[in-house]
Amino acid sequence: MMNETEATAKGKEMVERLGAGWEARVWENLGWHAAAHKHNVAVFWHPRGNSYSTLVSSKASSSGTGLTAWSQATNKDYADPRESVRAAVTAVNNYITRLEAAQAEAQQCVDHFE
User: Can you give the residue range of the structural domain that contains 70?
Assistant: First the structure.
């Protein structure tokens, strides 16, 4: 199990790998955890598998508080945090494509109202 010093070091390492604008977050909840946040994207490190997963959400607050209207997470863990972010962004783009198709079909229904 990781201690606070190790979690802080891991958070710093993640930020360095991800680049400018990322902020490390470390917290204790039945063990110490590390993540990196930028805008509405959070990358989480999983010590058991030494892997990363990413969550992209509609949260308006960078503090992690507030309501989430939607979120898209990676469905597997990645060895590189950057690959995890890329996979999450791809998943978001695919989701948007499906939403746009559904919206176009729904709009056709409305267009046919008298």
Answer: 4-111
- Per the structure, the count of domains in the chain is 1
For the question of whether the overall pTM of this predicted structure is more than 0.85, the answer is no
Distance in angstroms (rounded) separating the CA atoms of residues 20 and 7:
20
> What end-to-end distance do the CA atoms of the chain give, in Å?
65
For range 19-29, the mean pLDDT? 95
